[in-house]
Design goal:
The complex is a heterotrimer of chains A (about 650), B (about 210) and C (about 130). Chain B has about 210 residues and is an alpha+beta fold. Chain B contains six helices and eight strands; from the N terminus they run αββαββααββαββα. In chain B, a hairpin with a 3-residue loop joins strand 3 (about 65-75) and strand 4. The two termini of chain B are about 35 Å apart. The chains are: A alpha+beta (about 650), B alpha+beta (about 210), C alpha/beta (about 130).
């Protein structure tokens, strides 16, 4: 293909493109021949006669219809082409014969021969009046809307920009800016003008910039299009930029508001939680009040018994039999007071459980007398056993407490008058209660039935809640039935309550049956007291308790030496080396604790038997005696005797 | 800020743009012949700025170190012309103008001299064309290779002269298939600018005057 | 014996390009290169040279001065001034020393006119 052929083909293509585009014409300026050729559309735009198209015209025709104000500009541009410039791109006005003005865009190309001499100047003329108007509107809109435009051809170091674009970035208005100048304004992150794009490059983006003139931090948004070359790696970006600082700030404010809202909600929640805490505290205080009242009440009763017994004992001429009865009453009442303490501690879940295997019937019979005093003379107590060898493994004290609690409850339900039946039965399973599935297995049940008013259905579910009581404040602790419940659960059992209004209530305590121990049938609590012998070092910081313990020990046949703390005890042991058989020490003492003392003694005087004692539940609940024999306070003389003789593993 | 006697009027700007266009078109045409590849050009940018600012404009353009072919010109108007591109493009440009026939060692060997010759052809043709358009003659020095940043290319120092105004012209060019880009820059000092204004007026008169 | 062409240019690249274009037009011609005026004058003193291609823009002495000196020594030798400095004034000065003007970059097309003219002249001189 010759150069001319190629040119004609290009022209042909151009013509087709132009025809499709609408009002546009072409020209072909023969520089060497000093002639101009135009097509009919060009002629029409210039207001030339139709038959001028295709004919050789004087080159001055090119300037004929041009607006006088644009003519000089156009001549200079054409001179550039005639002088060897390659690119021609000018917009200028044409004045029609009717005086109307048409804006046209001439885009042309200078063609040179092989000696670089310009020979032809060809181009297209497009009516851009509408576009100019649109652009003018766009320019106004851009200025009003603050939208700047840019056009970037990859490989260039400069970007064609609009004045508004420059203003947005705080730069002096220019038509072109270096890429780096623009991108240097981005505070951090991706550049505004990407010098490399790939398929994933997203033209829409937001950039934090520091404006060049006032160095103010602003946000700008970029939108536009990436146009890729069809044949090659090149691309072109046409885009717009606009300020979104206000939107960003509003967004930030909104976010801040949201965050504050969250904080405020949290604050509100905190206030409410505090209120709830306060409420709970108040409830607890109320409960403590009730509890204190209940304890005071119970203790008063117990003290009354002790006080009256003592008064009775002081009376002269009292028979030995009656003396013994009053002394027994005092002892029993003291035991009950201790039990009350234990019950309280059990509620606090600090009581160390001491499960042991025992015969329920013997135990119930053992407390029958006490139960009778508790329920009063007008309530008949009946104990029935439908099981043999009723052994369970549980804490005896807790078990007794549970029975007493159920009995007290029954008494109150009957207003002190009626029949109380305690019944022991074999049970092959535990029925499903309070949402718990039934459990198969060997159980023994202890039922406590009254002939009272019965419990209303709506109260039943709350029966075992701590502090739930229908009694007036001061009349009961409300801890009784919750203790029963806690004990049942801790012992792997269950408690069930059935009630019929007007007929009575039955509490049925289920406990897992234990296998019968080999020494079953023997009296577990032998009252026999053997005389003790040996020398005991008593360590106790409370003088009265120390004195009391020493007296008891002396009564039991021991020789005692007292020390008020561990250091003193060690001193005594050193001074009287080899003269002691036993150490009887409190655990919680100022200075060296009883446990530490016990360790020291075991280390230095291994022959000395060690017994520790404590009333502090936390000491008892934790690793009890750290391997030493531990006696719970308060203790009976009998318990003390058994422990000292080594007959009971406590 | 810019004295009136050197501030270019709109037509003068147009005229200078066209003249530079012609010069650069000729330069591009020559570069095209040398590298047998498409060379694309941007529209010339033209600013009256301080020499220091001109140096910064150049420094802003490229991150990497620059290499430039420098030729000073003197005549009715005087100044300095530079063909600038990133140093990383240097060998590729040499490879392009030597027609891919040389070994890497040979290219490295000839690099300096080949760059000088390439710059010589491009800047000469550009300046000569401009001189022809303005109908004045210019003398040109032999090309020098300069490496460094914008300041060293323009010899900007702490002296007051660096704050003087210059006419700064620059044109992007890119050899698309070779991934080579750079630009042609021209700096003219103030007395030259005043002289140039007169020449541009003459040029405009020649072009516009005969048919207005 | 084929004619000898002396290519004078301070640029090796330019000498290569000119040599290549010349070889394409006249493969038989011998080519001798000089990197400047001094070397060129030394060569023409030592051996016969039939035509010269001279770069205009050279450091020590410009091509037009060298052309004038060679013209004085060899009044009929075909000489071409090669330059990208296409100023009308430069072209006029080349003409003044009876030298042809060939624009840089040198192409086969650009050199063809000068070489065919030189070949004609050398043939007529040889006959």
């Amino acid at each position: 293909m010759t150069g001319d052929d190629a040119q004609r083909e290009t022209d042909g293509r151009t013509r087709l493109t132009l025809a499709a585009a609408g009002a546009s014409g072409i020209w072909d300026w023969d520089i060497a021949g000093d002639r101009l050729y135009v097509d009919d559309r060009f002629a029409a735009l210039y207001g030339l006669d139709g038959d001028m198209a295709g004919r050789a015209l004087p080159t001055a025709t090119f300037f004929s219809a041009v607006h006088p104000d644009d003519r000089a500009r156009l001549r200079i541009a054409v001179a550039g082409i005639l002088g060897g410039a390659e690119r021609f791109s000018k917009e200028f006005r044409l004045v029609r014969s009717d005086g109307t003005i048409v804006w046209v865009h001439g885009r042309g190309q200078g063609h040179a021969d092989e000696r670089d001499e310009p020979v032809r100047f060809t181009g297209l003329l497009v009516d851009v009046t509408e576009r100019r108007l649109a652009e003018e509107r766009l320019r106004i809109a851009q200025t009003a809307g603050g939208v700047g435009t840019f056009e970037y051809t990859d490989g260039y170091a400069t970007v064609a920009v609009s004045a508004q674009f420059c203003r947005l970035l705080g730069l002096h208005p220019a038509t072109a800016l270096p890429v780096r100048t623009i991108n240097a304004l981005v505070a951090h992150g991706a550049p505004i003008v990407p010098e490399d794009v790939n398929a994933a490059t997203e033209i829409a983006g937001e950039f934090m910039i520091v404006r060049a003139d006032d160095e103010e931090t602003r946000w700008v948004a970029r939108r536009g299009e990436i146009m890729r070359d069809l044949d090659g790696p090149g691309f072109k970006i046409m885009g717009v930029l606009y300020d979104v600082t206000e939107a960003k700030r509003s967004e930030a404010k909104l976010r801040e508001l949201n965050e504050t809202l969250e904080a405020r909600v949290q604050e509100e929640i905190a206030v409410r939680m505090q209120a709830e805490d306060t409420l709970r505290q108040a409830q607890k205080m109320e409960a403590v009040g009730q509890l204190t009242g209940g304890i005071a009440h119970d203790f008063n009763n117990l003290l009354t018994v002790i006080r009256s017994s003592v008064d009775l004992l002081r009376r002269p001429e009292i028979s030995e039999q009656r003396q013994k009865r009053y002394i027994d009453a005092i002892a029993d009442t003291a035991d009950r007071a201790a039990k009350l303490t234990r019950q309280l501690l059990a509620f606090a879940r600090r009581q160390a459980l001491k499960p042991e295997v025992f015969n329920v019937l013997i135990c119930v019979n053992g407390i029958a007398d006490m139960l009778r005093t508790v329920i009063g003379a007008r309530v008949e107590l009946v104990i029935e056993s439908n099981c043999e060898q009723c052994f369970v493994e549980a804490d005896i004290g807790q078990f007794e407490t549970a029975i007493v609690n159920m009995a007290v409850n029954a008494r109150d339900a009957m207003n002190g008058e009626g029949r109380l039946l305690i019944s022991l039965d074999d049970q092959p399973s535990v029925p499903a209660v309070r949402g718990h599935a039934s459990a198969e297995g060997a159980f023994i049940s202890v039922s406590v039935s009254d002939t009272g008013a019965g419990i209303p259905e709506d109260v039943l579910p709350r029966l075992f809640e701590p502090f739930f009581t229908t009694k007036e404040v001061g009349k009961g602790t409300g801890l009784g039935l919750s203790q029963v419940y806690g004990f049942a659960k801790q012992s792997g059992g269950e408690v069930e309550v059935t009630s019929e209004l007007g007929h009575g209530t039955t509490f049925r305590l289920y406990l897992p049956r234990a296998s019968t121990p080999p020494d079953a049938g023997e009296e577990t609590r032998s009252p026999a007291q053997e005389r003790g012998q040996g020398r005991v070092l008593v360590v106790e910081d409370n003088e009265q308790v120390n004195e009391f313990a020493s007296d008891l020990l002396v009564d039991l046949g021991y020789e005692t030496v007292s020390a008020s703390n561990a250091a003193e005890a060690i001193g005594v042991l050193e001074r009287l080396d080899g003269e002691f058989d036993m150490l009887f020490s409190d655990v919680v003492m100022p200075g060296i604790s009883g446990v530490e003392l016990a360790r020291i003694v075991r280390e230095r005087w291994p022959a000395i038997r060690i017994v520790l004692t404590s009333g502090y539940s936390h000491v008892l609940a934790t690793d009890a005696g750290h391997g030493f024999t531990l006696l719970h306070k308060p203790y009976s003389v009998q318990e003390l005797a058994l422990v000292l003789q080594g007959r009971v593993a406590v | 800020m810019i004295p009136d006697d050197i501030a270019l009027q709109e037509l003068e700007r147009d005229a200078l743009t066209e003249i530079v266009n012609i010069g650069v078109s000729r330069a591009a045409s020559n570069l095209r012949k040398m590298v047998a590849d498409q060379v694309i050009l941007s529209v010339p940018s033209m600013e009256v700025v301080t020499k220091r600012r001109a140096a910064r404009l150049i420094a802003e353009r490229e991150v990497s170190d620059l290499i430039a072919v420098r030729q000073d010109f003197a005549g009715t108007f005087s100044g300095r012309a530079l063909l600038i591109f990133p140093q990383s493009n240097s060998l590729e440009l040499v490879r392009a103008v030597t027609g891919d026939e040389m070994s890497p060692a040979e290219i490295a060997d000839i690099e300096h001299e080949a760059l000088a010759e390439t710059g010589n052809i491009i800047l000469n043709s550009c300046l000569a064309t401009m001189a022809n358009m303005l109908q004045r003659s210019l003398t040109m020095t032999v090309p020098h290779i300069v490496r460094g940043d914008g300041s060293s290319l323009f010899e900007v120092g702490d002296d007051a002269a660096s704050d003087g105004l210059v006419l700064f012209l620059y044109i992007d060019f890119a050899i698309r298939q070779r991934d080579i880009r750079g630009y042609i820059a021209m700096v003219m000092d103030l007395p030259s600018l005043a002289a140039l204004k007169l020449l541009l007026a003459e040029f405009i008169e020649r072009i516009v005057g005969n048919a207005a | 014996m084929p004619p000898t062409a002396l290519i004078i240019d301070d640029s090796k690249l330019a000498r290569i390009v000119s040599g290549r274009a010349l070889a394409e037009l006249q493969p038989d011609w011998q080519r001798v290169e000089a990197n400047g005026a001094v070397e060129a004058l030394a060569i023409v003193n030592e051996r016969p040279v039939d035509l010269a291609l001279i770069d205009f823009n050279m450091p020590d002495k410009d091509g037009l001065e060298l052309a004038a000196e060679l013209r004085a020594l060899f009044p009929t030798m075909p000489i071409a001034i090669i330059t990208a400095n296409i100023q009308d004034e430069v072209i006029a000065r080349a003409r003044a020393v009876n030298a042809a003007f060939v624009p840089k970059p040198v192409t086969t097309e650009g050199l063809r006119g000068f070489v065919s003219g030189a070949a004609l002249r050398l043939r007529s001189r040889g006959e």
